[in-house]
Amino acid sequence: MIDWPKVRRIHLIGVAGTGMGSFAGMLKAAGHEVTGSDENVYPPMSTQLERWGIEVLTPYRAENLDRARPDLVVVGNVVRAVNPEAEAMRARGLPHVSFPAALGERFIAPRHGVVVVGTHGKTTTSAMLGALLHHAGRDPSFLVGGVTRDFDSNFRLGAGPHFVVEGDEYDTAYFDKGPKFLHYRPRTAIFTSCELDHADIYRDEAHYESAFEKFVDLVPADGFVAACASYESVLRIARRARARVETYAVDASGADWEARGLALAADGARFTLVRRGAALADVHLPVGGAHNVENALGVAAAAAALGLSPAEIAAGLAAFRGVKRRQEVRGTAAGVVVVDDFAHHPRAVEKTLAAVRGSYPGARLLAAFEPRSNTSRRNLHQAQYAAPSTWGGAAEVFLLRPAPTDRVPEAERLDLDAVTRDLAAAGQPARTFAAVDEMVPAIVASARPGDVVVAMSNGAFGGIWGKLLDRLRGK
Fold first, then answer.
1. Which fold, 328-472?
2. C-alpha span between 397 and 427 (Å, rounded)
3. Counting CB atoms within 10 angstroms of each CB, which of 88, 160, 164, 296 has the fewest?
4. DSSP 410
5. Confidence band for 286, pLDDT divided at 50, 70 and 90
6. What is the dihedral of CA 443, 42, 18, 440, to 10 degrees?
7. Mean of pLDDT values over 144-155
8. Neighbours of 230 (CB within 10 A)
9. What integer pLDDT is reported at residue 231 of this predicted model?
10. How confident is the model at residue 18 (pLDDT cuts 50, 70, 90)?
11. Among 123, 119, 132, 225, which residue's Cα sits nearest to residue 165?
12. Helices then strands (H, E): number in the chain?
């Protein structure tokens, strides 16, 4: 345990990651002096860190610790034991801790932990619940994996009793290989989905599910779990909970929480919120897509368990503005809309494109995709990427070939040439490119007024959104 009242100066190694950067801002807001270091720093996190007044030292060097003079070092999970700052930290005997452990001790432990877990939808769901609690006057704290449009921030420190956090199943640190969310002290939980991801650390479906089994075991008997009934694996795992469990789903019948009369349009979704057959409220959710309606049902279930009324829930959902990099419109040029989304798992790609189609009925979609995550770079989901259904009827699919990496053995790498061939054979036009600067002119040549380009990646994607808009404007 860290003696937090005695900790004044804190240095974060790997500060430019979404979670670490947000945590740095939260530590600064709590009164600590904060510095950080990283190798690759780019928007939106670089912009946020600068705004919060947090100095970022780059690249990693032992000398950065001389400048930081920390009482405590927080180590991100991208940092390996051989990192020069990690080596210097250990050699100097500096107190150090992982980001999840520090977050759990410093901020969640004194509050009611509300943790959102699952393969998909964690960021939007946790941001939605945080915004809803704030709208209802509960003054929550939260930390999510994206910049919320309601607060223009990844985090908030409030005086209320609740702390909402996005619970990641990825490993914690080089010295703690367990899932991050095991440090988050859940009393209320939303379990959105469960299908194999993070293939670099989970060997198979059973291994992956075991992480969520451990999480569910943490929720106390007087706690609450909202479980998405659209996934049999979620229901199976949730059954082991000691806590009260209520289910939710858009499509699955028999769920406790449902959305009846669902209508999707350019201004979002409208539905009647129903719990166990009883209509509670009519809801307008401004963010589009059936998957976001499902997220809203989980939020409604958790919010009700926390004591919010149906009217407060409906009002909070209606006020929610979403998260940056989730169906975010980056701009319009020459009549073409350019949309940015974080999707990288094939299921997320499919749902994102379906949501965009609902927001732009009748528009042609052009889908650009960068397989950048440790899972999407592997052939684990080769068949799904090669299935036209994944691409939601896009007029054309543009794929970026990942740079070779020793982190993915050659025999396990996604074969984009085969994906392209299989898609073309099935009638789905698709092309693969070696670089973003080759892809951009091809997209612009294919685009015509009224089209929507959806560029999906969990990274910077070579700045494709700005390059597309510039090219469309003739720059």
1. Protein-Tyrosine Phosphatase; Chain A (3.90.190)
2. 11
3. 160
4. G
5. very high
6. 0
7. 83
8. 18
9. 93
10. confident
11. 123
12. 15, 23
Q: Which residue has the tokens 């989304």?
A: 341
Are the CB atoms for 14 and 118 separated by under 8 Å?
no
Own/partner pairs, 263-266, CB within 8 angstroms, 24+ separation: 264/288, 264/289, 264/290, 264/358, 265/358, 265/361, 266/359, 266/360, 266/361
CB 382, CB 419: distance < 8 Å = yes
Pick from 387, 392, 453, 391: which is nearest to 419 by CA?
A: 387
CATH class of 111-319: alpha beta
CA–CA gap between residue 56 and residue 115 (Å, rounded):
29
Segment (H or E) for 98: strand 96-98
* Residue 352: closest CA among 456, 458, 469: 456
Residue 264 has a CB neighbour count (10 Å cut-off) of 21
| Residue extents of the structural domains in the chain | 4-98, 111-319, 328-472
How many angstroms separate the CA atoms of 234 and 124, rounded? 18
Alpha-carbon distance 319 to 321, whole Å?
6
Choices 3.40.50.2300, 3.10.180.10, 3.40.50.720, 3.40.50.800: CATH for 4-98: 3.40.50.720
pLDDT at 16 over 70: yes
Q: Interhelix angle for 122-135 vs 310-319, to 10°?
A: 120
Under 8 Å between Cβ of 49 and 16: yes
Cross-strand partners of 186: 113
Read off the pLDDT of each residue in 285-301 and give the average, rounded to a whole number. Answer: 93
pTM for the model: 0.83
Q: What does each C-alpha distance from 413 to 259, 401, 408 come to in angstroms? A: 40, 11, 6
Cβ burial, residue 222 (10 Å; 0-12/13-18/19+): exposed
